[in-house]
Amino acid sequence: MDPALGPPEEMAEKRDELTPMMRQYHDLCARYDDALVLFQVGDFYETFCGAAERTARLLEITLTSREDSTGEYPMSGIPIDNAESYIQTLLEAGYRVAVADQVEEPGETAGVVDRAVTRVITPGTLTEDELLASDDNNFVAAVARGDGEPSTPRVGDGSRTGETETLALALLDVSTGDFLATSSRSPAAIADEISRFDPAEAVLGPNAPRDVLPEECMVTPFDATAFDRERAASLLSRYYGHPDALLAEDAEIRVCGALLAYAEYVRGGEHAASAGSDDEAAPVTEPADPDERSRLEYLTHLTRYDPREYLLLDAVALRSLELFEPRAVHGRDDATLVGVLDETASALGGRTLRDWLRRPLLEPDRIESRLDAVEELTGAVQTREELHDHLRDVYDLERLIGRISRERANARDLRSLRATLAVVPEIRERLADADCDRLQRLHDELHPLVDAREAIDEAIVENPPIEITEGDIIADGYDDGLDELRATARDGKQWIEDLEERERERTGIDSLKVGYNSVHGYYIEVTNPNLESVPDDYERRQTLKNSERFVTPELKRREDEIVGAEERADEREYDLFCEVRRDVADEVERVQALANAVATLDAVVALATAAAEYDYCRPEITDTDRRSGLEIDIEGGRHPVVERTQESFVPNDARFDDGRRLAIITGPNMSGKSTYMRQVAQIVLLAQVGSFVPAQSARITPVDRIFTRVGASDDIAGGRSTFMVEMDELATILREADERSLVLLDEVGRGTSTADGLAIARAITEHVHDEVGATTLFATHHHPLTELADDLQAAFPLHFEVEGVDDEVVFHHEVASGAATGSYGIEVATAAGVPETVVERSRELVDGTASAADTTGTARDIDEFERVHTGRDPAAAGSPLPATADGGNDPTDIAAELRALDLGHLTPVEALTELDRLKRMLEE
Ligand code: ADP
Ligand code: MG
Predict the structure, then answer these.
(1) Fewest Cβ atoms closer than 10 Å to its Cβ: which of 5, 188, 382, 751?
(2) DSSP state letter for 113
(3) Ligand 1, atom 17: nearest CA belongs to which residue?
(4) Percent above pLDDT 90 for the chain
(5) Which helix (H) or strand (E) holds 850?
């Protein structure tokens, strides 16, 4: 047990003797025992005992102590004013943080100030802008198992493995209100959905499997009863009406209800809901407060979806297609699909674009509707640019209205909302003459919400302060009572301002001054030589070296009046502000609908901008009968990411149909095979997003799923390069792919010895061709595998041309039909600057082997060399290798060492070291 969590032992022993404040701390720690409790004491959040020692070290703050009659307790505190950055550090260290605020003004009650946990901050439930990435969602997930009762399968149709009872998944972004649910009978399908949304945290229901979650995902234990069907249903019905109408499975109801309960719980307070809680008196799903204050009004929508509505991308595909993360370990952040396409102007649009990329569509009609909108804006340069400019002025409406609804917004937030509403008419106007349906619909959905805007305008001053309890928020003329209080304060101040003049006249003391200090308030100051002229009604307050300070009863009275009026004005302003905030919060659904329209428009504008800027074309979406194969016909296709990171890019065609389903792509290393395969998949994916694509022209049938298997050598970024992982991924492909899948197999079989690897690669390819029927791109630098293209009916060979010019290799990056003639490994080594002696030696080895094996054809073929030495060719067994001239080390040893080298697992530095060692062996 982490000593920073739960009630401190040294307090627990003597709980009943503790001072009331420390008892409060102890009890809150006990109640929120999976979170680190930050306990407000005045301007600080304090932690005590184990938690204090831990936070002091983590946050690099001073460890002090607090002493009372029961003992001395370690203590450390962080200033509330910039608590967020400290909280971030605690979250990064893996803690949940429970913030216990003072919920009474000190002095309001006789006893100790009451404190309550107002929010629990966890990685998956952040709402603080400072802690969130603006252009990405932040999800918390919940996973629940079905009850085991018979239920209709929703997703898995039996083809996926590990089929069990239903697993349901709910995803919630607490900051924006996005709330999604789905279910499947396949744990693998649930795991895939989870990797799409990449939640930062997950709540698991009773017996729900941990292994559907990525390792780095924080798992939060939560009251098991929250997953109870009846409880979940009753909570859901308070938000969304009858849950049966909305959700398909009991497991979905349970998982959504539990996640909602968790959202209410982290929002603060009322419920005791930690793991294993058997506190029946405080059931999670019933608010302690009868007026339902814990209800999260901004969670207005719960969307159930079926993963089969979207192109399926598992974690491997997301990574190898470079959607959100660069493949290279030190790759530039923008070397990703989203990096290339994200021309969005607002955070709203940024999140929508990411959602589109994460979930490409299948339905041709939906794809075409997005494409129509993109096409129209691609052509309308001026409209597009004006839209972009206006969209830049849009604040994050979703998070704003979320904060407003949770009563966490300040007056500036309301002004930001108002400023956004003010640009809506400008945006809307740009769409007035839109041609396509989609843009016309967006035009209609862009409600400027004039009444809300006017309400804010009337009530809130233009530049309010951040604080909402210290006045200067509400505009003059908005409220009579407030105006009166302000007038009183103003009159009083005017009276004091005039006082100096009046008193100088009355007393004849020209040097008399009226001043103010924060301890004594207003005073009249008279210098020592004039003290005898001081009137009787002056009361002495303070003696200074050269003067005395006085007050008069009238001054005192005026001062009290001013202070009283100002205090009451501040309170009044706060009340009025809360009223306005509540009124605006009532508009939550309309604001969310507006946010949605703005976000969609921004994403469309971004796609149109990228299309125009990078010269993309509109793909033609063909909708073939499910039984006939896919059709992919790309002319002059380019890799959207690679073409941005280098000076020139060679476009290539790709054509697949029923008779051409399996491309066997050969060519030496670095010739462009991987780039080509990925660009085909990315073009298909982009088309299904509704984006234009980097090509001259493209005809594409939507695919259901993209599988990728990238050979060990090419998967350095993933850090998963064991043979086991490779086989695991291949097994998934063989099991789950079908004729509507697009499969990329890049250098498969490299994780093991060449003979095994080639055999496996070949067998897999045959299976994919004969049994699976998926459209497949298979790249290999193992030349012998090209035979496959002759043997399999729907297979065809492609290769990348390279040219050897004076020991140099020229890569044309141009795909051509037919098989490559050689792999040019030695030329690549030369071109890469491997020392001449080593190159020479390699040549000798190759030549020697080739003659020993008595093979014809190119003597430079390294693949041939490998094949011979894997024992597949009996003629080569025990063939003598040429000895070195000086007769040193036995060269067969060196050849054996060379063979044993697994190039797929060497870093360039390791390779050089290895070469150097071999070279020295030769020289000995
Ligand atoms: P292979 O998989 O055959 O080893 P890659 O696809 O990894 O080769 O390509 C190697 C490098 O060649 C890429 O990083 C890229 O810089 C360049 N390249 C690949 N294809 C092209 C192309 N069509 N036009 C220009 N450069 C390319
Ligand atoms: Mg490659």
Answers:
(1) 382
(2) P
(3) 672
(4) 58
(5) helix 836-853
